[in-house]
Structure formats: C-alpha cells, structure tokens
Amino acid sequence: MRNLNLDHVQTLIAIADLGTFGAAAQALHLAPPTISLHVKELESRMQAALFVRGRRQAELTSAGLALVQEGRRLLAASDDLIDLVRCRAAGGDGVVKIGVSAGVGGRLLPLMLDALGRRNPGVELKLEALGSAEAMLRLQASTLDIAIVASPQSAAVGIVQLPWRNDPVVALVPSIWDTPDLVTPDWLSTRRWASFAPGTQMHGLIAAWFGQAGFNPRPFFTLSHPGALTHLATANQSAVILPLEEVEEMRQAPGVNVRPLSPALMRPMAVAYRRLPTPGDAMAAVLAVLAEFAI
C-alpha cells in the first residue's frame, strides 16, 4: 500500500488556507497543473472527493476537511522529526516542545532561555504560546513535552503537575493618580483598570478578588499580552492588574507606581510534563532550569 505523500498534503492545506488552487500554486511556487495533479493523486489514494466541484472558491468536503485537520498534525510531526535529526546530527541533546501561558513571558521567559542556553547549549526549544487548557490537551496528545500552566488543572493520566510559582498580583498605576499605598477593590472599582481577557486564569482571579469584596466592575480594557497592558498605565490611560514578576523592573520607572493589592492576591502556576519511563537529557535539562525559577 502506498503511503501518503506529505508534499501532496501540504498542497491540500495550502488550498484550504488560501481559498483557491491558483493562490496555493503561487504560495508554493508550483505550476497550477501540478497543484491539480497533487489533489487528483490524493483523491485517488483516499478514494474520496476532497473538494466540492463547481465552486469558484475551493470548498472542502467532509473528507477533505478531515484530511486537512489531521494533515496539519502530520506536517508538524514531520517538522519535529527533521528538527530532532538535525539537532542530533549537530551533536545536540535534543528538541523539547514547550507550551507557555500568555501570563509568562515578558521578564521570566528570556531569563529562563538565557540560563538554558548557557548551561545546555545542545538543547533546542520549540515554544508555543498556549492557553492552559489547550496545553494540557496537547500534553496528553504527546504534541508537547512540557507546559507552564495556570494552577490547578484537572488531573490527567500520564501528566505530572508540579507547583512552580505563586506570584503576588499588583496594580500598576499612573503616577499622576492620587493612589493609596494599598489598592483595594473599593478604590479600584470606581476607576479605570485593565487586565487579562476573559477565559484566562488572571481574569477569574481578579473577578473573584472584586467579588469577595462585593463588587463586580467591568474592566476598561482586556488583553492577553502583559507588555501591551503596561502601556496603558504608562500612557496614563488606566491602572493595570498584573503579576509582580511582569512589572518588577518598572518599580523605579517614571510615570507609574507599583502598588500591592489589599487583600493580597496571588497567581499560582504549575509546570506540567509528560510522564516518561526515561526522560531524555534535553527534557531533564529544561525541567531543571524551570525548577531554579520556582518560588
């Protein structure tokens, strides 16, 4: 039995993403007849129609949609295999795929990458920004090795979860505001404030912080990128609620003040990873570096 040709699968995905055979041909630097041939050979191999005929735009059949969805996984696995072989051929220790929550990155991630690069230069990382729920699913599907996730997460077979950090949450406030030493829900509920978008751990923590004090204010703005949020405070537009580690370096910055919350609010994070009989040296090295940044 003939195996799937991954070049043909890549052609199918390009057509699905770009909408037409012509656009796929241009993007892949292939002649239009070659694109048509790839589709014909795929349909012959699958014994199924992959596109609805007679439409100007390339519309997938249910069979075509299934092949595109699973084909993306095949291409990603192929890329991972190529990276692994190249890394080993160059004398490296291996490739580790890490999912990182949007709440971690501005300050910690570069520090961790620098520490790993200095101590274990043979380890190659593939980073993806993922929500915690998706990261846990990817770990179970073995398309991730390690994930930094909001804590707690539901227990999953074959996945280890270790408490990692418990960072205090603070308010970053424009210095032109008359701000108390401790920011309370009562004080902040009547002012403009911003933080992470709904569906994130931080959004839930902040809503509960206000709710326990009897308030339910709507945020002025929501984003899932800490760096973009801090600009709201530096531009005197809004207070911003973020973990301290994201604004640690702004304590002495002009134009803003960092204030603790009262009652105190903490943001717990965990390191989740696949339980393997014999974790490779590369994965062990990454876990060791993560452990050094635990608090």
Automatic annotation (TrEMBL):
<dbReference type="InterPro" id="IPR005119">
    <property type="entry name" value="LysR_subst-bd"/>
</dbReference>
<keyword id="KW-0238">DNA-binding</keyword>
<keyword id="KW-0804">Transcription</keyword>
<keyword id="KW-0805">Transcription regulation</keyword>
<feature type="domain" description="HTH lysR-type">
    <location>
        <begin position="4"/>
        <end position="61"/>
    </location>
</feature>
<dbReference type="InterPro" id="IPR000847">
    <property type="entry name" value="LysR_HTH_N"/>
</dbReference>
<dbReference type="Pfam" id="PF00126">
    <property type="entry name" value="HTH_1"/>
</dbReference>
<dbReference type="GO" id="GO:0003677">
    <property type="term" value="F:DNA binding"/>
</dbReference>
<protein>
    <submittedName>
        <fullName>LysR family transcriptional regulator</fullName>
    </submittedName>
</protein>
<dbReference type="InterPro" id="IPR036388">
    <property type="entry name" value="WH-like_DNA-bd_sf"/>
</dbReference>
<dbReference type="InterPro" id="IPR036390">
    <property type="entry name" value="WH_DNA-bd_sf"/>
</dbReference>
<comment type="similarity">
    <text>Belongs to the LysR transcriptional regulatory family.</text>
</comment>
<dbReference type="GO" id="GO:0003700">
    <property type="term" value="F:DNA-binding transcription factor activity"/>
</dbReference>
<dbReference type="Pfam" id="PF03466">
    <property type="entry name" value="LysR_substrate"/>
</dbReference>
